[in-house]
Amino acid sequence: MIRVVVTGIGAVTPIGNNIHSFWHSLLNGSSGANLISKFDTTKFKTKFACEVKNFEPLSAIDKKDIKKYDLFTQYALVATNEAVTNAHINFDALNKDRIGVIWASGDGGVSTFEEQINEFKLGDGTPRFSPFFIPKRIINIASGAISIKYGLRGVNYTTVSACAASNTALIEGYNHIKWGKADIIITGGSEASITETSIAGFNASRAMSVNNDDYAHASKPFDISRDGFVLGEGAGAIIIESLESAQNRNATILAEIVGGGLAADAYHLTSSHPDGEGAILGMNLALVEANISPNQINYINAHATSTPTGDLSELKAIKKVFKTNQSLSISGTKSMTGHLLGAAGAIESIICIKAVLENKIPPTINSANIESEYVDEFDFILNKPKHKTVNYALNNTFGFGGHVASSIFKKYTYL
Fold it and tell me: Catalytic residue at 303?
C-alpha cells in the first residue's frame, strides 16, 4: 500500500502568522481573543473574536493581485507559500499533472458578499458590482488560486463540510495519494468569517459565547461554565505526498498519515448527537484504517468548541472508544485560537503533526472545572504544555449538518 507522509506545513492564525510563532504561542498558552476591530459591535451580543493580527499578504501575493482575492483566499495563499517553502518543493522539477490541491472552507468569501450587497443596497438600485465579485466569493476559488500560482494540473476541488471541512480535505488528499491518483497534494483550509452576518447569525443560534467582560477566558472547552465558542479566522496548509515522492526529493518527513474516518451524526442540523454516535464511528473508522488499537493513541486534539452540548457529546464518544486508555492525553486548542470553522481541522492537524514530531502537547487554557464525569477518565492537559512521547495523534472535527472527520498522524519511521 502507498504510504502518505507530511513534508510541509504553513499557518496564518490569531496567535501567529507562521508556524514558528503559532507553535510558540500554543505552548505558552496565549489567547488570541480580543475586541472585534473589523466592524462596530455596539448592537451585537458578542463583541469579541480571535482575529488575525498584522497580516502581510504581500509575502505571497503581488500587490496588483490583492484586489482579486477575498481575505480567505489571501490567508490560503500565504499559508500555502510557507508550507511550500517549508517542504523545499521545486514544482518545475516534478510532474505537475500529478500534483493537486484539495482545499476547504465553510463560508468562502462572506466578507466580499456582505460588502457588495451593502454597496448595492445603499445605491440607487443600479447593479454595480465588482468584476471580481463572483470569483472572490465562491468557496472553491482558493483551491483554484493555489493551483494557478504554482501551475498544478492535478486533482483540484474544495470540500465543504462546515467545521469538519479541512479535516475532510486532508483525508480526501490522503485517499487520492493512497489510491495512486496523485503524488503530492496541497491541502488545508482557510476562513475569514469575522463579519457582521456571521457574528449575528451565530448569536441567533446561541452557539457563541457572550462573555464580553472576560473575553480572553471565554473559550473554555470541557469546563462546566462554558457558554459557547469564540469565532476565529485564518488558514492552515499541509503538503502531503507519497513516501516514494518524498524520498525521491530527499524531503524532510514530518509525520505520516495512517488513517481517516468520515461519518455523519444523521441527527440534527446544528447539534451533535447526544451520545456521539457519528464521532464514535469516525474515530473507529480511522483506527481500523490505521490498523492500531485505541490504546496506541497518545494524544487527541479534540474538536472541543466550548459549547455545552458539543463538548459533552465528544467526551461521551471518546470515553466509549478509548475507555481502556487512561493515559490518553486530550487538549482543546480552540481555547487559544478560537474556532476557525472550515479551517479548524487544518490548523489542528498541524498541531497533531507538531506533537508527534516534537513530543510536546499544547494545553487547554481557561478550563478549571472539567465535567466531573470525565475529569479522572483521561489526561486533560490544562494551562501548561506536556512533554510526552507521541507516536500517534488523532484530530477530531465535527460540523453543522452532522459532518464528522477524524484523522490519525503517526511518528515517521523508515520501516
Answer: yes
Q: Give φ, ψ of 115 to 5 degrees.
A: -60, -45
| Alpha-carbon span 5 to 409, nearest angstrom | 9
Q: Where are the beta strands (DSSP E) in 67-123?
A: 99-104
Number of domains in the chain: 2
Q: Is the pLDDT of residue 415 over 80?
A: no
Residue 334 and residue 226 in one domain: no
Query: Cell match 457588495: residue?
Result: 116
Same domain flag for 269 and 212: no
Question: How far is Cα 8 from Cα 80, in angstroms, rounded to an integer?
Answer: 9
Nearest to 52 by CA among 76, 69, 68, 82: 76
Annotation marks residue 20 as catalytic: no
User: What pLDDT, in 10s, does the model give residues 327-353?
Assistant: 999 999 999 999 999 999 999 999 999
What the block records as the C-alpha cell of 316 is: 461521551
- Return the closest-CA partner of residue 337 out of 360, 366, 359: 366
Calculate the average pLDDT of the chain: 96
Whether 163 sits among the annotated catalytic residues: the reply is: yes
Q: What is the pLDDT of residues 121-137, one digit of tens each?
A: 888 888 889 999 999 99
Residues 137 and 244 in one domain: yes
Catalytic residue among 163, 217, 273, 352: 163
Q: Are residues 148 and 269 in the same domain?
A: no
Catalytic hit among 176, 339, 352, 403:
339
Q: What is the mean pLDDT of residues 307-323?
A: 96
